[in-house]
Records
---
Amino acid sequence: MTKEQLITKLKPLIEPYVQDEEAFKNLSEDTDFVKDLKVNSANLVDIILDIEDEFDIRLENEDMEQMLDVKSAMEIIAVKLGI
């Protein structure tokens, strides 16, 4: 799975929780969930749960603590999927 494909799969998981639509339109690896998209901490947990369901993976607490931006999310997903 390429980075572009991964971002494409992540976008619909993130979108319902985004408070800054303009930042979401420019979503990239460097996008921070809290600072850029204005996702609150409770919704960040929802995104993580949605990622687990979408990719059929189990995220540990330390994975969740590191998943603060799109790049970190992509790296963790790639490790869990072995890609």
---
Amino acid sequence: MDLERKLNGNLREVWFDGREIPLERQDIWSLLNNSNIKKIVVTTAQRREGHYPLKTELITEINNEEDLVQVASGEIVISGEQRLLDLAQERGYRTCVSFSIQGRDALERSWQDASRYDYAVIDFDLPTNIPLELILARLQERRTILLKRETSFTGLEVAFGVMEKGSDGVLLATANPAEIIKASDYLSRQSKDHLELQPLLVKEVRHIGMGARACIDTTGLMTPDEGMIVGSTSNGGIFVCSETHYLPYMNLRPFRVNAGAVHSYIWMPNDAAEYLTDLSTGSKVLCVNTKGEARTLTVGRVKIEVRPLLLIKGEINNKEISVIVQDDWHIRLMDAVGKPQNATEIKPGHELLGYACAPGRHVGIKVEETIIEK
């Protein structure tokens, strides 16, 4: 399973290093027990004396041959002593080698040695990411799952972004509950977002005069089949294309979606929706493609200007969904077969790509309540 994850480039590993956390710190252990973090590195003493939920996968530090007696064959054991790990391999254990790397010679030895084991945890003497880049390049074709030791969630995010691909995982070593909560939340978001996009039959197109509209500029680059879901009400929205399509007088802006009127909802990770005016630098939004596959992008800025506006109303399964976008030819909305259509050329009877969901939002989070939006 772990090798499949590496080869497919899917989910990241997040391990928690519990070896320095006393069992008396019930605030930390209770938090871990109720978090999404399942893999926890422990000492043999912690393994004997602690109480862990069934979902927990213990990774045991071994310091001598006798420590293996406490660990069931097939589990993961971790050590900096390769002699012990070689013995563990012979006895059917999965193995994780631990390196604290100082200097270039140690770095070269580490990747060669790491390739002999199932996992490798690495820590460096300096905060630069260059050594991580070097070891990632050397291990990219190997079976070894590479984890970087980090002490904060910010470090975790950086490790996962190095050389675009990032490390396969992170060993989080912290006694700060806030950092553990952030890591747990990250794991809950790891599964790829997917929106069930459906054909929306256009019923009305109307020029409604001047108003404020927002462009969302992100820190990522979008492709021609990507955009964002924008809607006037919380029961759904319409696929507004990224600025990756022909513009006669301007360069393309593949980082941008000219989203629409400032009151609009835009869909975000974790089934949340937010008003365009609530977005700011650092906010997270969903970038969706024509298959409904979604990824998270970070907002670099939101640009609001006064422009003519165009109302587009339609229906998905008798549910009315609308969007107000800038009234201009260069604004594109995706049609039901995945082709961009100029906003000013859309007519009643056309079919666009839309998204319908149950209404009801409070500060962007879906709630169960009676709500009518028009």
